[in-house]
Amino acid sequence: MPKKKIILSGMRPTGKLHLGHWAGALENWVALQNDGGYSNYHIIADYHALTTKLDTSHIYEYSINMLLDWLAAGVDPAHSPVFRQSQVKEHAELHLIFSMLITKSRLERNPTLKEQVRDLDLGPISYGYLGYPVLQAGDILLYKGEVVPVGEDQLPHIEITREIARDFNRQYGNVFPEPEGKLTQFSRLPGLDGRRMSKSLGNTIFLSDPAEEVTKKMKKAVTDPQKLRKGDPGRPDVCLVFTYHKKFNLSEEEEIRRGCESGQLGCVDCKLRAAERLNRFLNPLRERRRQYENAPEEVEKILKNGEAQAREVARKTMQDVHQAMKMG
Ligand code: TRP
Fold first, then answer.
1. What is the distance in A from the centroid of ligand 1 to the CA of 112?
2. Residues with CB under 6 A from ligand 1
3. Residue 67: CATH number of its domain
4. Does residue 204 fall inside a structural domain?
5. pLDDT tens string 3-55
6. What CA–CA distance (Å, rounded) separates 57 from 49?
Protein backbone atom coordinates (compact mmCIF):
# COMPACT_ATOMS: atom_id res chain seq x y z
CA MET A 1 0.00 0.00 0.00
CA PRO A 2 1.36 3.46 -0.81
CA LYS A 3 2.25 5.57 2.16
CA LYS A 4 -0.53 7.88 3.28
CA LYS A 5 0.06 11.56 2.69
CA ILE A 6 0.15 13.65 5.82
CA ILE A 7 -2.38 16.41 6.23
CA LEU A 8 -1.92 19.12 8.79
CA SER A 9 -4.39 21.89 9.21
CA GLY A 10 -5.90 23.91 11.97
CA MET A 11 -7.63 27.03 13.15
CA ARG A 12 -7.33 29.56 15.91
CA PRO A 13 -9.90 29.10 18.68
CA THR A 14 -11.67 32.43 18.32
CA GLY A 15 -15.30 31.35 18.69
CA LYS A 16 -18.06 29.49 16.90
CA LEU A 17 -17.37 28.36 13.35
CA HIS A 18 -19.49 29.48 10.44
CA LEU A 19 -20.28 28.27 6.95
CA GLY A 20 -17.27 30.15 5.60
CA HIS A 21 -15.00 27.94 7.72
CA TRP A 22 -16.82 24.89 6.47
CA ALA A 23 -16.70 25.81 2.80
CA GLY A 24 -13.16 27.17 2.98
CA ALA A 25 -11.47 24.34 4.83
CA LEU A 26 -13.44 21.95 7.03
CA GLU A 27 -15.24 20.36 4.13
CA ASN A 28 -11.89 19.38 2.66
CA TRP A 29 -10.55 18.07 5.96
CA VAL A 30 -13.47 15.69 6.24
CA ALA A 31 -13.45 14.66 2.57
CA LEU A 32 -9.72 13.93 2.62
CA GLN A 33 -9.99 12.12 5.95
CA ASN A 34 -12.68 9.89 4.46
CA ASP A 35 -10.77 9.37 1.23
CA GLY A 36 -8.47 6.88 2.91
CA GLY A 37 -5.27 8.09 1.25
CA TYR A 38 -4.37 10.62 3.91
CA SER A 39 -3.45 10.77 7.52
CA ASN A 40 -4.92 13.91 9.11
CA TYR A 41 -3.78 15.99 12.08
CA HIS A 42 -5.77 18.99 13.24
CA ILE A 43 -4.33 21.64 15.47
CA ILE A 44 -6.18 24.05 17.73
CA ALA A 45 -3.78 26.95 17.38
CA ASP A 46 -4.21 28.50 20.82
CA TYR A 47 -0.81 30.21 20.81
CA HIS A 48 -1.70 31.80 17.48
CA ALA A 49 -4.83 33.21 19.12
CA LEU A 50 -2.57 35.25 21.42
CA THR A 51 -1.26 37.23 18.46
CA THR A 52 -4.46 39.25 18.35
CA LYS A 53 -5.87 38.74 21.84
CA LEU A 54 -3.78 38.45 24.98
CA ASP A 55 -6.72 37.67 27.25
CA THR A 56 -6.76 33.89 27.69
CA SER A 57 -9.58 33.64 30.21
CA HIS A 58 -11.94 32.02 27.69
CA ILE A 59 -9.42 30.21 25.54
CA TYR A 60 -10.18 26.72 26.84
CA GLU A 61 -13.91 27.24 26.38
CA TYR A 62 -13.33 28.53 22.83
CA SER A 63 -11.07 25.60 22.06
CA ILE A 64 -13.69 23.09 23.19
CA ASN A 65 -16.39 24.91 21.28
CA MET A 66 -14.35 24.83 18.13
CA LEU A 67 -13.61 21.17 18.66
CA LEU A 68 -17.36 20.53 18.96
CA ASP A 69 -17.84 22.22 15.60
CA TRP A 70 -15.09 20.10 14.05
CA LEU A 71 -16.59 16.90 15.44
CA ALA A 72 -20.05 17.98 14.33
CA ALA A 73 -18.71 18.56 10.83
CA GLY A 74 -17.38 15.02 10.69
CA VAL A 75 -13.79 15.16 11.89
CA ASP A 76 -13.34 11.66 13.24
CA PRO A 77 -10.91 11.54 16.16
CA ALA A 78 -10.35 7.81 15.61
CA HIS A 79 -8.59 8.74 12.37
CA SER A 80 -7.61 12.35 12.85
CA PRO A 81 -5.88 13.36 16.08
CA VAL A 82 -6.99 16.78 17.34
CA PHE A 83 -4.82 18.68 19.78
CA ARG A 84 -3.96 22.04 21.29
CA GLN A 85 -0.77 23.67 20.15
CA SER A 86 0.06 24.75 23.71
CA GLN A 87 0.09 21.12 24.89
CA VAL A 88 2.87 20.03 22.55
CA LYS A 89 5.99 21.87 23.70
CA GLU A 90 7.94 21.06 20.55
CA HIS A 91 5.98 23.78 18.74
CA ALA A 92 7.82 26.40 20.74
CA GLU A 93 11.17 24.78 20.06
CA LEU A 94 10.72 24.40 16.32
CA HIS A 95 9.43 27.96 16.13
CA LEU A 96 12.64 29.17 17.74
CA ILE A 97 14.84 27.30 15.27
CA PHE A 98 12.78 28.42 12.29
CA SER A 99 12.89 32.03 13.45
CA MET A 100 16.59 32.05 12.56
CA LEU A 101 15.89 30.96 9.00
CA ILE A 102 13.74 33.87 7.90
CA THR A 103 14.37 37.58 7.69
CA LYS A 104 12.36 40.31 9.30
CA SER A 105 11.76 41.96 5.94
CA ARG A 106 10.34 38.73 4.47
CA LEU A 107 7.79 38.65 7.28
CA GLU A 108 6.98 42.32 6.84
CA ARG A 109 6.15 41.58 3.21
CA ASN A 110 3.58 38.91 4.20
CA PRO A 111 0.34 40.00 2.48
CA THR A 112 -1.91 38.54 5.19
CA LEU A 113 -0.17 40.73 7.75
CA LYS A 114 -0.41 43.78 5.53
CA GLU A 115 -4.13 43.20 4.99
CA GLN A 116 -4.79 42.87 8.70
CA VAL A 117 -2.80 45.94 9.56
CA ARG A 118 -4.87 47.82 7.00
CA ASP A 119 -8.28 46.41 7.97
CA LEU A 120 -8.07 45.97 11.72
CA ASP A 121 -7.10 48.47 14.31
CA LEU A 122 -4.21 46.46 15.68
CA GLY A 123 -1.94 49.06 17.18
CA PRO A 124 1.75 48.27 17.29
CA ILE A 125 2.70 44.80 15.99
CA SER A 126 4.31 42.42 18.49
CA TYR A 127 7.38 40.34 17.72
CA GLY A 128 5.17 37.23 18.02
CA TYR A 129 2.58 38.56 15.62
CA LEU A 130 5.20 39.31 13.01
CA GLY A 131 6.34 35.72 13.47
CA TYR A 132 2.83 34.26 13.04
CA PRO A 133 3.76 32.39 9.83
CA VAL A 134 6.93 31.03 11.46
CA LEU A 135 4.86 29.48 14.24
CA GLN A 136 2.51 28.14 11.57
CA ALA A 137 5.43 26.66 9.62
CA GLY A 138 6.34 24.87 12.84
CA ASP A 139 2.77 23.54 13.16
CA ILE A 140 2.88 22.05 9.70
CA LEU A 141 6.43 20.75 9.63
CA LEU A 142 6.46 19.28 13.13
CA TYR A 143 4.13 16.62 11.70
CA LYS A 144 5.92 16.61 8.32
CA GLY A 145 2.67 17.80 6.79
CA GLU A 146 2.53 17.49 3.01
CA VAL A 147 -0.96 18.74 2.28
CA VAL A 148 -2.52 21.73 4.02
CA PRO A 149 -6.23 22.22 3.29
CA VAL A 150 -6.97 25.85 4.15
CA GLY A 151 -8.79 28.94 2.96
CA GLU A 152 -7.30 31.19 0.33
CA ASP A 153 -6.07 33.75 2.87
CA GLN A 154 -3.61 31.20 4.26
CA LEU A 155 -1.70 30.52 1.05
CA PRO A 156 0.98 33.15 1.76
CA HIS A 157 1.73 31.36 5.03
CA ILE A 158 2.15 28.07 3.23
CA GLU A 159 4.53 29.71 0.82
CA ILE A 160 6.61 30.88 3.80
CA THR A 161 6.46 27.35 5.22
CA ARG A 162 7.87 25.98 1.96
CA GLU A 163 10.68 28.50 2.01
CA ILE A 164 11.58 27.61 5.58
CA ALA A 165 11.50 23.87 4.83
CA ARG A 166 13.77 24.41 1.83
CA ASP A 167 16.22 26.57 3.77
CA PHE A 168 16.36 24.15 6.67
CA ASN A 169 16.95 21.19 4.36
CA ARG A 170 19.65 23.04 2.46
CA GLN A 171 21.44 24.08 5.60
CA TYR A 172 21.17 20.92 7.70
CA GLY A 173 20.01 18.03 5.52
CA ASN A 174 16.74 16.69 4.30
CA VAL A 175 14.25 16.51 7.16
CA PHE A 176 11.10 18.28 5.94
CA PRO A 177 8.71 17.94 3.00
CA GLU A 178 7.64 21.06 1.09
CA PRO A 179 3.94 21.18 1.88
CA GLU A 180 1.26 22.23 -0.54
CA GLY A 181 -1.89 24.21 0.14
CA LYS A 182 -5.18 22.76 -0.98
CA LEU A 183 -8.23 24.91 -1.62
CA THR A 184 -11.86 23.91 -1.81
CA GLN A 185 -13.91 24.84 -4.84
CA PHE A 186 -15.71 27.50 -2.78
CA SER A 187 -12.72 28.68 -0.88
CA ARG A 188 -14.49 31.96 -0.28
CA LEU A 189 -18.19 31.52 0.44
CA PRO A 190 -19.45 35.09 0.83
CA GLY A 191 -21.46 36.24 3.83
CA LEU A 192 -25.13 37.20 3.67
CA ASP A 193 -24.32 40.76 2.59
CA GLY A 194 -22.05 39.60 -0.21
CA ARG A 195 -18.84 40.55 1.57
CA ARG A 196 -16.30 38.10 2.97
CA MET A 197 -18.02 35.97 5.63
CA SER A 198 -16.72 37.12 8.98
CA LYS A 199 -18.01 37.29 12.50
CA SER A 200 -16.88 40.88 12.86
CA LEU A 201 -19.02 41.87 9.86
CA GLY A 202 -22.14 40.20 11.33
CA ASN A 203 -22.94 38.40 8.07
CA THR A 204 -22.42 34.79 9.09
CA ILE A 205 -24.44 31.63 9.40
CA PHE A 206 -22.97 29.57 12.23
CA LEU A 207 -22.74 25.79 11.96
CA SER A 208 -24.52 25.68 15.31
CA ASP A 209 -27.35 28.09 14.40
CA PRO A 210 -30.81 26.56 14.96
CA ALA A 211 -32.95 26.04 11.87
CA GLU A 212 -35.23 29.06 12.51
CA GLU A 213 -32.21 31.29 12.85
CA VAL A 214 -30.85 30.12 9.51
CA THR A 215 -34.18 30.85 7.83
CA LYS A 216 -34.38 34.26 9.47
CA LYS A 217 -30.86 35.16 8.37
CA MET A 218 -31.36 33.88 4.86
CA LYS A 219 -34.46 36.04 4.45
CA LYS A 220 -32.26 39.08 4.96
CA ALA A 221 -29.62 38.04 2.41
CA VAL A 222 -28.87 40.38 -0.47
CA THR A 223 -30.02 39.41 -3.97
CA ASP A 224 -29.72 40.85 -7.45
CA PRO A 225 -30.44 44.56 -6.86
CA GLN A 226 -32.17 44.78 -10.26
CA LYS A 227 -34.81 42.22 -9.30
CA LEU A 228 -37.24 44.18 -7.19
CA ARG A 229 -40.33 42.02 -7.22
CA LYS A 230 -41.57 38.65 -8.35
CA GLY A 231 -41.97 38.75 -12.12
CA ASP A 232 -38.82 40.80 -12.68
CA PRO A 233 -36.21 38.71 -14.44
CA GLY A 234 -33.16 38.18 -12.20
CA ARG A 235 -29.49 37.48 -12.81
CA PRO A 236 -28.49 34.38 -10.84
CA ASP A 237 -24.82 34.93 -11.56
CA VAL A 238 -24.73 38.17 -9.60
CA CYS A 239 -27.04 36.90 -6.86
CA LEU A 240 -25.61 35.83 -3.53
CA VAL A 241 -28.50 33.48 -2.77
CA PHE A 242 -27.80 31.64 -6.01
CA THR A 243 -24.23 31.06 -4.81
CA TYR A 244 -25.76 29.24 -1.84
CA HIS A 245 -27.96 27.18 -4.15
CA LYS A 246 -24.89 26.22 -6.17
CA LYS A 247 -23.13 25.14 -3.03
CA PHE A 248 -25.93 23.44 -1.11
CA ASN A 249 -28.64 22.70 -3.63
CA LEU A 250 -26.89 21.34 -6.69
CA SER A 251 -29.80 19.17 -7.79
CA GLU A 252 -32.11 22.16 -8.18
CA GLU A 253 -29.54 24.62 -9.47
CA GLU A 254 -30.77 24.66 -13.06
CA GLU A 255 -34.43 24.89 -12.10
CA ILE A 256 -33.68 27.81 -9.76
CA ARG A 257 -31.68 29.51 -12.48
CA ARG A 258 -34.54 29.25 -14.95
CA GLY A 259 -37.10 30.39 -12.40
CA CYS A 260 -35.02 33.41 -11.49
CA GLU A 261 -34.17 34.41 -15.05
CA SER A 262 -37.76 34.10 -16.22
CA GLY A 263 -39.03 36.01 -13.20
CA GLN A 264 -41.37 33.21 -12.17
CA LEU A 265 -39.44 32.50 -9.00
CA GLY A 266 -39.56 35.36 -6.51
CA CYS A 267 -36.64 36.13 -4.21
CA VAL A 268 -38.57 35.28 -1.05
CA ASP A 269 -39.37 31.78 -2.27
CA CYS A 270 -35.87 31.35 -3.60
CA LYS A 271 -34.43 32.27 -0.20
CA LEU A 272 -36.78 29.94 1.63
CA ARG A 273 -35.70 27.11 -0.61
CA ALA A 274 -32.04 27.92 0.03
CA ALA A 275 -32.69 27.99 3.80
CA GLU A 276 -34.49 24.68 3.59
CA ARG A 277 -31.53 23.05 1.81
CA LEU A 278 -29.06 24.58 4.18
CA ASN A 279 -30.99 23.23 7.11
CA ARG A 280 -31.09 19.83 5.50
CA PHE A 281 -27.32 20.00 5.24
CA LEU A 282 -26.89 21.28 8.81
CA ASN A 283 -29.25 18.83 10.52
CA PRO A 284 -26.78 15.95 10.85
CA LEU A 285 -24.16 18.41 12.14
CA ARG A 286 -26.60 19.67 14.76
CA GLU A 287 -27.37 16.13 15.81
CA ARG A 288 -23.70 15.16 16.15
CA ARG A 289 -22.94 18.37 18.03
CA ARG A 290 -25.73 17.66 20.49
CA GLN A 291 -24.37 14.17 21.16
CA TYR A 292 -20.90 15.48 21.93
CA GLU A 293 -22.27 18.36 23.98
CA ASN A 294 -23.99 15.82 26.15
CA ALA A 295 -20.74 13.92 26.68
CA PRO A 296 -18.17 16.48 27.84
CA GLU A 297 -15.86 13.84 29.37
CA GLU A 298 -15.67 12.10 26.05
CA VAL A 299 -14.69 15.32 24.32
CA GLU A 300 -11.99 15.89 26.90
CA LYS A 301 -10.73 12.37 26.34
CA ILE A 302 -10.62 12.92 22.59
CA LEU A 303 -8.43 15.95 23.15
CA LYS A 304 -6.13 14.17 25.61
CA ASN A 305 -5.70 11.24 23.23
CA GLY A 306 -5.03 13.51 20.30
CA GLU A 307 -2.44 15.41 22.32
CA ALA A 308 -0.66 12.22 23.30
CA GLN A 309 -0.49 11.13 19.65
CA ALA A 310 0.69 14.53 18.49
CA ARG A 311 3.43 14.61 21.16
CA GLU A 312 4.72 11.28 19.97
CA VAL A 313 5.07 12.46 16.36
CA ALA A 314 6.52 15.79 17.47
CA ARG A 315 9.16 14.09 19.62
CA LYS A 316 10.33 12.00 16.68
CA THR A 317 10.54 14.94 14.33
CA MET A 318 12.59 16.88 16.85
CA GLN A 319 14.99 13.97 17.10
CA ASP A 320 15.48 14.21 13.33
CA VAL A 321 15.95 17.95 13.65
CA HIS A 322 18.53 17.67 16.42
CA GLN A 323 20.37 14.97 14.60
CA ALA A 324 20.48 16.95 11.37
CA MET A 325 21.73 19.98 13.30
CA LYS A 326 24.28 17.92 15.19
CA MET A 327 22.71 19.09 18.41
CA GLY A 328 21.58 15.66 19.51
N1 TRP B 1 -3.41 30.61 10.49
C2 TRP B 1 -4.54 29.75 10.43
C3 TRP B 1 -5.82 30.60 10.39
O4 TRP B 1 -5.82 31.73 10.85
C5 TRP B 1 -4.61 28.81 11.58
C6 TRP B 1 -3.45 27.86 11.64
C7 TRP B 1 -2.52 27.78 12.63
C8 TRP B 1 -3.12 26.86 10.69
N9 TRP B 1 -1.63 26.81 12.35
C10 TRP B 1 -1.95 26.22 11.19
C11 TRP B 1 -3.68 26.47 9.46
C12 TRP B 1 -1.33 25.20 10.46
C13 TRP B 1 -3.05 25.44 8.76
C14 TRP B 1 -1.89 24.82 9.25
O15 TRP B 1 -6.83 30.12 9.94
1. 12
2. 8-12, 43, 45, 48, 136, 139-140, 148, 150, 154
3. 3.40.50.620
4. no
5. 999 999 999 998 899 999 999 999 999 999 999 999 999 999 999 999 888 99
6. 12
